[in-house]
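Supplementary Text 2. Reproducibility record for the structural model of the 421-residue chain.

All settings were left at their defaults, and a single model was retained for analysis rather than an ensemble. We include the record here because the model underlies the residue-level annotations in Supplementary Table 4.
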Amino acid sequence: MNDMTQSPEMLIATMANRARGAGAALALADDATKARGLELAAQALRDKCNDICRANEQDMENAAARGLTPALLDRLRLDTDRVEGTAKGVEQVARLSNPLGSIIEETRRPNGLILQRVRVPLGVIGIIYESRPNVTADAAALCLRAGNAAILRGGSEAVESNRAIHAAMTEGITAAGLPVHAIQLVPTTDRAAVGAMLRASGLIDLIVPRGGKSLVARVQEEARVPVLAHLDGMNSSYVHSKADSAMAKSLIVNAKMRRTGICGATETILFDSAFPATAEIIAALIDAGCAVRGDEAITALDNRVTPASEEDWDTEYLDAIVSAAQVSGPDEALTHIAAHSSHHTDAIITEDADVAERFLNQVDSAIVMWNASTQFADGGEFGLGAEIGISTGRLHARGPVALEGLTTYKWVVRGTGQTRP
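Retained model, structure tokens:
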């Protein structure tokens, strides 16, 4: 039966069974072969750049007609430089150290038994994502290098781009002799296929959602498969009273405006009431094209600032908009962040090391930063190659999830004939 004529449940079951078989074949492939497959996939992305960009143009036209915001269009857009960046990301994954087979811990029991915890693949991973077509390559590369088979379900807005990237990736891995079904792209945009993935207990070992609040909420509500959650990036940057003014201005403008549509963008700025250059930074943001929504103290500094509503403190804008508030000191800043953070990334700007260490210790987020732009919240910038997402949960993996986060472990016990008394 053709995949497109199957019910969503049968389609996902068929793909999962193919993925399981591909995973068994990957287990027999040595690491050099997997790395070579990704190197060939990166070259295929470059060779197919024109095809990928043409496919993306079609997606961009359709997305503009649907009224996507400029920030979402930016996340969707591909050009020669971005395809090259995607190819380099795949190459970086190929060059990373192989986590599989590494011994996490080894102990020798009094009876002579040797116990080891050894890294192994998770199995079949389903990735459900929106907007950003580079995720097709990033997720495929990371899953394969960690010995997992991937089932990819991208958003309808990027369907043509995803298909073109997937075709290039499979061309590369099969040229290295790796199984074609190690990387599968769900061929339908029917939302029922997402539900089928979420209910595929026993067929899919882990679901990774990468998208907005509505997608993650649906996944967490409906999933019968373990979920590695990537919540929204409600990120704050706190400018302490002892922040260097020039540094603070540079960091804040970059953290908000470098790319407004990524999950590492700062969405709320907290200014210490004793910091002397708040008005200067607010003006710099506005001059850079950012709309500022402020509390009463911030609004009084610049007549171009509009009053913030309660909803603003909990909004991931993914656009050239930021909320800003004045706080009386670190205690109020920490309280605000605890109340409104999505536990993704939060930063402090200060020259006071003691205050910085307190912030880093007390803020309960996957990533905490001192004197750095929140835009560094990215697996590539962390030296992990690509990332499959940034986990905001507390179990299994946290922060940028790359190779190690896509593995689990098993216990290996070696004996010399011991019996249990």
